[in-house]
Amino acid sequence: MSLHRIVFLDAETLGLASLDTRALASSELDNIGAKITLFDHTLPEEVAERIKHATAILVNKVVLNADMLREASALQYIGVTATGMNNIDLDYCKANGIQVRNVTAYGTDSVAQHTLTLLLNLATRFVQYQDDVRAGKWSASSHFCLSSHAVVELADKHAVIVGHGELGKRVEVLLKALGMQVSIAARPGKKNDTRPSLASLLPQADVVTLHCPLTNDTKQLIDEKALSLMKPSAFLINTARGGLIDERALLNALENQEIGGAGLDVLSVEPPPLDHILIKANLPNLLVSPHNAWVGIKARQTLLDTTLAQLKAFISDADKAI
Known about the structure:
Radius of gyration: 22 Å
CATH superfamily of the largest domain: NAD(P)-binding Rossmann-like Domain
Oligomer: single chain
């Protein structure tokens, strides 16, 4: 049995302190001839040095391009602790026999719950009412309640989902439970998709929620033209990838009240600079959460367990091949 040197480049992203990490213990890994080194985070200039002796890498969002991967002459495996693999040079890995595995569907319930949270907060103006309470407006009211912000009832409204994988299907169930009518849009770039186009559905949509991957076909899917087709009362929800939206066009639409509001868990640059246009906008019809739709404890535990199970399966296969 050969020694497998494993490095986890950004372990901090999983919040290991709140998870069951017994499978990472030395005693467990010794049994399969593996030694793992955990780095909380890794800067771009640190990657090459940290991976140069590795036979396997675990990574979430650290970029691994061809120049970096060339430094890892012993590398055989990359385990991505996420679904998206756009941070990995997959062409280089394929050409050099490096197996890459991601994890799908680990956070379906967590992300679906967060999607609903963003939508419900927009519809009920929850944040604005909470701010009013903290500012003493309820205490100063001449009535028993506050009703200064218009609340939208979602029952019987029309929701359009873009991306109908496991997550999109779960969101569909939740929206229908609210009494909403749901349509599924054809995904750009998907051949022989007979579902109605997004453009044809946008004028009818009260809610548009994005659950598709970021590809060349979906980049800035929601642009100025798409936003112009939406109702001035419509809500846009994005818990997928920030690059699906033209952020400048969205800001203009929100500022000019061309749509009703937006709830975003993702931005095109993460973490965003302090002067990011949507961070500094401070608009009442815009909610931004810090890409944490996926961080439910159950979701992260499933992600860790699946990642390690896949890694152990790879090591077992590799040892058998020797």
